[in-house]
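2024-03-11 09:14:02 DEBUG pipeline.ingest accepted 1 chain
2024-03-11 09:14:02 DEBUG pipeline.ingest length=494
2024-03-11 09:14:03 DEBUG pipeline.predict start
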Amino acid sequence: MSATPVRDSDVQADVIVMGSGAAGLAAALAAREAGARVTLLEKRRSLGGTSNFIRGVFAAESEMQKQQYIAYSCDEAFRNFMEYNHWLGNARLVRALIDRSAETISWLQAHGVEFIEVTINMPDAPRTYHVLKGVGQALVRALARAAREQGVDIKTSAAVVDMLRGADGRLRGVRAKIAGRPVDIECRALVIAAGGYANNREWISKYTGFELGENLFPVGNAGKMGDGIRLAWEMGAGAEGMGVLHLIRIAPYGREFPLMNVVEAACIQPALWVDPEGRRFCDEGIAFYDTSTGNANTRFKRGYTWCLFDDSIKRHYIEKGVDRGMTQRLLPGHRLRDLDEVLERLLALQSPNLVAAHSVEELAAKMQVEATVLSATVAEYNEACAKGRDPVFAKAPLLLRPLLGPRYYAARARTAFLGTLGGIRISAKTEAVDDFDRPVPGLYAAGNDVGGLHAESYSMRDTSGIASAFALISGRLAGENAAAYATARQGGEG
């Protein structure tokens, strides 16, 4: 028999925030700054979730950019973003995001968040990427500290399990489990910022057609089951953007391979990529653009492709450096001096995800592809390298390097994703709305729980750092508007 929920007067609030990532912490702090009594509920024992891994934040027209004569305007960013998404997104929401981006950098700095530089993380992109000092963990700590100092009641091991409604059907609170104890908490407004549904096998299968853990792999996500999305839908909110993922392609992938090692750095380079049958499938120059690599990989429902290189290419990475960087600590031109050592150590694990051989035919056998197919692929590619022109995929001549041996390497590149990018339909004020854009009173949502920003792919080239910026800015908007709603409702009740 389950325990009967009790009403706990110590946790009454004007605004309750569900989730403690960048969106949730920003919402809680903004609502408190607007004068609301705020309680933040985080179902896990620690704060931040995937926000602990954030490395940079988008902004246009920030003070840091102005100091470096970076002239990329909000208007340019808005137009580029909307064109990339074919105007399928919520244009007013995008405008609000971009227009508040610079001021949000200043707001973060005022709360103790430090930035190292403004840069780019792909060729020829606008310099919008504000690199964090201490990565996301530092941001989470700073926002949590500021929220607590201003009086936000932050509770961990506190899962929201249901909504409470009044006689008029409107939100009047939530039912939560706090340290295992069921508690009913009254509030006037709720902000859902629970981080999406990256770990929900049923929803991933239903909305993307992939099978989680089999041919699609979440990176850095834990416990994200779409709890907030489901509750919003039950309250009458519409759905938007379900099935949109922040896709990437990573190699080698497996429990035996630590993330961000030098072998991974070698395997994400624009060498030779082949599909599960051993055939080349793209211009490997897309290696510089994570969204493109993730999209290209999704064509293959086995959930992987292969990265190939040889000893000569390996020497290039060691002596001359990589073409594509891997975060800001391993930039283009970085020499992978310990690649030989780490590569041999990982090969010794005898994983099917990383193999080596002294002939293309032997490599094909270890990859479990037809030797004739792979041999023909390598021969065709080497011919293009010799001629300095790729007649099939138009790869840049500078990146055409032949595979000549004497040893060949192949790493399985998994189709992976960093998060889901859809769920609750919202207005430009981050109000949860129904399918006809009518607000659900008192309900707001932010971050990866909402749709309406990205059309079918993560939009990165002209707006580097947009996911973290959206979490922070939509969280601030949700907190501010939830506080205003709660204040107005309080006045109406009086």
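2024-03-11 09:14:41 DEBUG pipeline.report Residues 466-493 form the longest helix (28 residues).
2024-03-11 09:14:41 DEBUG pipeline.predict end
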